[in-house]
Every structure is written in structure tokens, then in C-alpha cells.
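Recap quiz, item 2
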Amino acid sequence: MEYPSKLIEDAVNQIAKLPGIGKKTALRLVLHLIKDKSENTYALTDALVKLRGNIKFCSSCHNISDHDVCSICLSQRRDRSVICVVEDSKDVMAIENTAQFVGLYHVLGGVISPMNGIGPSELKIDSLVTRISAAQNEVKEIILALSPTMEGDTTAFYINRRIKDFTVKVSVIARGVPVGGDLEYADEITLGRSIAGRTLFQ
Amino acid sequence: MYLQKLQLLNFKNYEEIALDFASKVNVLVGRNGSGKTNLLDAIYYLSFTKSAFATSDLHCVRKGESFLMVKAAFKKNNTVFEVSSAIQSGQKKVFREGGNEYQKLSDHIGRFPVIMIAPDDVDIIKEGSEARRRFFDSAISQLDKEYLNHLIVYNNALKQRNSLLKMFADSGRPDWLAIESYDRLLVQHGEAIYTRRKRFCDEYLPVFRKYFNFLVNEAETSTLAYESGVLTNGFQEQLVRNRQRDLVMQRTNFGVHRDDYIFSLGEGDLKRLGSQGQQKSFVIALKLAQFEILEQHNQFKPILLLDDIFDKLDDQRITKLLELIRSDLGQLFITDARPGRTKDLLDAVGVEATVLFVDAGRISVGH
Ligand SMILES: Nc1ncnc2c1ncn2[C@@H]1O[C@H](COP(=O)(O)OP(=O)(O)O)[C@@H](O)[C@H]1O
Ligand SMILES: [Mg+2]
Ligand SMILES: [Zn+2]
């Protein structure tokens, strides 16, 4: 595609790098931005710059956080004996939306997939082991809420073996979650039920 | 089962065509490069959700275009099934039956079975073990969905395990537990694959022999033997025993992905000792046996695609093949670059055929 301006071309190319956005959509967004009030564009870039500069990850659970330790980990009302292991922060948000779970989380940052360059050491698995160990028997249950794919299953198997020497119960969420679907897309009721109906990991 | 209608848009050298086919014999005549094989490939694509030749889906898209569409009406037990697919650069391939998009492409495999007999089939004999595994895997997958699913998981686990081995070879710090996480999948699915391959070969061998003997008129015993290290040696133990070697070579040295099928004639190995003619008969018998097994299993005949078959065979084998066609092989598509030849051969044995003339991506119906 030929663009009338190098400035537009650069902006389109940057926006089109985002997942799910092609060049056509990017162009539409760019044309919208230059038609819109300039304050809006500056507010957007400002928010993005602040986001990248200040975003933190909780040092305990690795969830996105504004502080060193996230509000969930800090909360006195959460049940510290249960940790729900998830792939991403968006899974935490999905589960929080169900309002069915009062324990803590552990965000792995993905699932094991060596083909994509992700081995166990690229994930926060060591950190989970250290966390359970440091809590000295306070943790009674680990819930594995990973996607029902080969990669998710392999990660679950691996984690289960890594923590088998602790006296924790390991369970997996029930698969009411649509096949191959991200937790993100499971509706709140299904997701709530699948946490409530979790089963012992085999 | 047969293919009633076919519509192509930007498939290889076809810009836009819509065709009706005879439920029995269709002959495609046209010069080399006119698009005969491409048409067979379009039919193959609609059955297997991918081209028999192109390494990437986008290679099927007509040069200079950004998308393709293929659409077919298959008739099976008096019901018409509409199958369609679209490929567009930068987008996920879409495959539909009756307007419903498949969640997994593998769910389509085997529903509208097609068998292609093509000049380069002798590669099954001449090439390495991969070509033979590919042939048998495709044959078994068409009749057993579970087998295909085992194969998909196994191959995926194998790729992951090999990537892991590379990773650990680079870092020098192998995490054996991570390797074991894949061993478990390889063992579980590999044993299922082994069992199914073995069962298939037991069922397949007598049918294959029948066709081979029919084609060559000689009493030499032809054999195909499934060879796998898996059960005799214990899969799990071998994976553990081979770990260091796997790490050095950065790939998995043991498993059903190393299986082979050994073809022989009399006392000799077919690859080295068989004549050209014997080898050709062997591969045609492989395909005809596949046809019969699929038919027995489905209770209907697969569609048979015969690409330039009369170019490659001597008179005796052509006569034999015509005998089979006369006794009914269901719907056939036969390509031939020589005008008249195939039609004359079929006329001579009293088989009615519809002739389609292919000319640079255009097709007209003749008589
Ligand atoms: N993606 C494509 N776009 C346009 N032409 C193609 C494409 N793929 C193959 N072809 C053309 O198709 C022709 C080969 O057609 P083919 O069906 O093999 O001929 P034949 O009638 O000899 O079997 C070649 O000329 C090749 O350039
Ligand atoms: Mg050809
Ligand atoms: Zn936290």
C-alpha cells in the first residue's frame, strides 16, 4: 500500500505490530487519530509511556501490579492456604470476575512450549517451588488452572512432579471451560463452577 | 460416494471454474501444464484439507491473487454434502461442511475419502522410511479418526521434546524432568500408534497380495512387514536409555517416528532387486488394497484419482487395470496428455466415460 505520508506509514507500521491488528485496521486507527482532538492522542501516548515506565509485577505472585507486592497478595481477607496457578494476568482477571475464589495466585507467564523457546526455566516455576517452601506448610492446596491443551497438560505434569515432596494437595480445575478456549473466554459462571468442581490431579 | 460439483476460484492455474462430473469415469485430457494434475489436487485438497503437492497453503493460491476458494458437492448415500474452503494470506484457513466451520481440520479427514495414484508413487519404495510412514499414516488416518488424533499429539510432543533437547544442548543444563514430561506422551500415544499400525498391516497384507498377484500374474510372494523397535524393547526404557545420545544428537532417536515397512519379493528386497515393472505394480497394488480396505470399512467406495497412469504402465498392466475399472471402481478421474488414448482404451472394454478438455486453466466438456 502507498501512503501519502511517511509519518502515517510509520504510525501504521507500529500499530499493525499489535496482535489482531492488520494494516487496514491500523490505517483506520491512524486516520481517526489525526482527525480527532490532539489532546486525545497525547493522552493515549502519555498513558502508554507511563504504563511501560511504571508497570510492575508482584514479587510474590508475578501478577501485574502497581506496587512491589500486589493488592491480592497483601490482602488480609485472602486465604493463604490455596494458590491458583495460571498462565497470564488475564486469567487472574477472569477468575477474579467470578468472585468465587478467595485464595492467592501464581502467574507462570505462559506454558511450557520449547518449540516457541519456552522451557521450564523461562516460566515462574522455580519461584512457585520457592514460594511453597518458604511458606512452611502454610500452603495446603495448589490449583492448576491451565489451558486444556497438550502444552497446558505438560506444564501441569511438570509442576506436579516438582512439588510432589511438599505436603500440598494438587488439583486441576474441571473442564467446563470450552475446549481449546482460553480461561479469558470462559463465561463467569462456567469458570466459577470449574474452580468449585476441581478434581485431584492424577 | 462421488463428487457431483466442483467450483474453484483462484486455485493454482484456475481463475474461476464450475464443473459437474459423471458419477463414474471422468477423463481429463489436455497438454502438459494445462492444469490436469491441479484439478486432481483440488479434489485431493477437499478430502485431505491440504494439497497433495504444495508445501504451503499459499502455493495453491493463483499467482498474483491473495485468496482462493474451493467448493464441492459430494453425494453419499443419497445425501448431498457441501464442502468448502478458503485460504487468504495472513488469515487462518477456513474449512466448512454444510456451512459449519470445522474446529479441527482433522475432523474432516476420512469423511470424503480420496485415493490418488500418481507417477511419483514409486517414491514410497525408493525413498527413505518417511515416505512409507506417510503412506500408511494417511491410509490408516482415513479410516480411523482416533489414530489420526494419536498421531497429531505424538508428533507435537516429539517436536516439543526435540526443541527441548536443543535448548538443553545449548545451555548444557538438561532438565530431565521436563524431558520426562514428553516421554510420557510419546509412550502413551506411541503405543496406540504401534498397535494400530500392526493391526492395519495384518488386515492389509492379504488384500495387497491379491492385487499384486492380479497385476503381475506371477507367483512370487510379495511381502510387507511392519518394523518397529517399540514393543520388543520397551518404549519407556528405551527413551530413558537413549537420553544422553538424544541430547548429543538433539533429537529423539527412539520411537514410532522411526518405524518402517519392509517390502520384499520372494527372497529379495524390493527396493534393490525389484524390476521397474515390479515396483510399479507394487505401488499400484498398495493403493488398490487401500481402496478396498477403505471401501469395506465405509461401505462405500472412495474417489480414485489416476494421474497420467497410462503413460507409465505397460500393456499387460493397463489391461489389468481396465479390467478392474470395468468391474466398477466407483468414481474415477483419469488424466491423460494424449488425446483419445484413454477414451479409446475405455471404449474398447465397454466403459462409458465423460471427457473433459483442459486447456490453460479452462475446461470444456466433450464426448
Ligand atoms: N499457484 C499457481 N498459480 C498459477 N499457476 C500455477 C500455480 N501452481 C501451479 N501453476 C501452474 O500449473 C501448471 C501445471 O499444471 P498441472 O496441473 O501440473 O499440469 P498437467 O496438466 O500437466 O497435469 C504449471 O504451468 C504451473 O505454472
Ligand atoms: Mg500432470
Ligand atoms: Zn501478588
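Chain A touches chain B at residues 22, 112-115, 117, 119-121, 150-151, 154, 157-158, 161-162, 179-180 (CB under 8 Å).
Residues 177-181 of chain A have pLDDT under 50 and may be disordered.
End of item.
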